[in-house]
Amino acid sequence: MIGNLQLIRAFAASGVVIYHCAALIFGFHTEFYGVALFFALSGYLMCKIKEKRSASAFAWERFLRIAPSYWLATALLARQLQPDKTFGEYLPSLFFIPHASEAGFYPPLGVGYTLNLEMYFYGIFALSIMINRKFAPLLCAGVIVAIALFLPSVTSNKAAIFYYTHPYVFCFVCGIGVWYFTEWLLPRIDHLIIPSWFFPIALLTYALMVPIVLGPLESTVVAFAAASLLLLAGVVSAKLGTDLRSKPIMLLGNASYACYLLHTIIIELFRQRGFAIDGSVGLTVIIFALSWCAALAWHGSIEKLIGLVTGRSPTSARVASATS
Q: How crowded is the C-beta side of 158, counted as CA atoms within 13 Å?
């Protein structure tokens, strides 16, 4: 796994935590386009691993990477915070089936809505590999765009329309585009050397530009372009300069999925105990720290145990998913 991309994963998860704490950054409520970053990363990484797995192995590995941790996190939510809900209310979300509920189209564990999109992408990508491995990314991108554009004309299912025409589906396509562009670009500039400070400065610039300049524009095109450019900077600087692969960065990247899953449960625990989730600095810092501590513990115990039970090595688990 490219270390720069691990840093992006950790940054994206952190942005989502800050957003759900209702914190304002330079007066703007933002998650630094964290979800867009996750999906763009996913599109890019799936292109990188497509040559290494059969379609069935790809689909099964992706399912095992996403589902067990999600199921356990949902069970934790149900046991501690939503004991009045029946198993039937959880069932569709556990199998990533778009449906309407009292929460609208969102599953009981709210961030799970993005996992519905992630599993949708994996399914189409696996089918694309089955049809033609070489052109699987293009096939996948074409199908996703076609469904997003034409689904409302062939069905009135509001849940399906909400998910499969969601603007976020285009982030996968952006990630695929970054992969094709870097495959074309890197052989042509491989004689260049990018200094080691380039990507940290790029990430810092991104972190400042989003709340100060880009976010207030409220443009999905700007969001997706910014996420794609940061991904591009991470890939190019890793190949031509310095890939940031320190142990803390790699560990935080590996634990980013756990942080993404668990932080809303931690927030809800505070809310049910009478705390106002209003973006106050002190409470935001506490929730942020607790979310990452819980994520590191979850990654070091639960995710490793899942890997042992399912026969998946920690290395293969780390390489292949961005949201995870």
A: 5
CB neighbour list of residue 275: distance below 8 Å, 6 or more residues apart: 283
- The count of structural domains within the chain is 1
Q: Is residue 241 part of a domain?
A: yes
Structural domain contains residue 324: no
Predicted TM-score (pTM) of the model is 0.93
Residue 260's nearest CA partner among 116, 115, 123 is 115
Please, are residues 65 and 317 in contact by the beta-carbon 8 Å criterion? yes
Number of other CB atoms surrounding residue 302 within 10 Å: 15
Range of the domain at 227: 3-319
Q: How far is CA 117 from CA 52, 66, 208, in A?
A: 23, 12, 28
Does some domain include residue 48? yes
10 Å CB burial of residue 168 (0-12, 13-18, 19+) is buried
- pLDDT tens-digit profile, the chain (324 residues): 799 999 999 999 999 999 999 999 999 999 999 999 999 999 999 999 888 778 888 899 999 999 999 999 999 988 777 677 777 778 899 999 998 877 789 998 999 999 999 999 999 999 999 999 999 999 999 999 999 999 999 999 999 999 999 999 999 999 999 999 999 999 999 999 999 999 999 999 999 999 999 988 889 999 999 999 999 999 999 999 889 999 999 999 999 999 999 999 999 999 999 999 999 999 999 999 999 999 999 999 999 999 998 876 544 444 444 554
Domain annotation covers residue 84: yes
Question: Residue written as tokens 């100060």?
Answer: 212
What is the CB-side half-sphere exposure of residue 103 using CA atoms within 13 A?
16
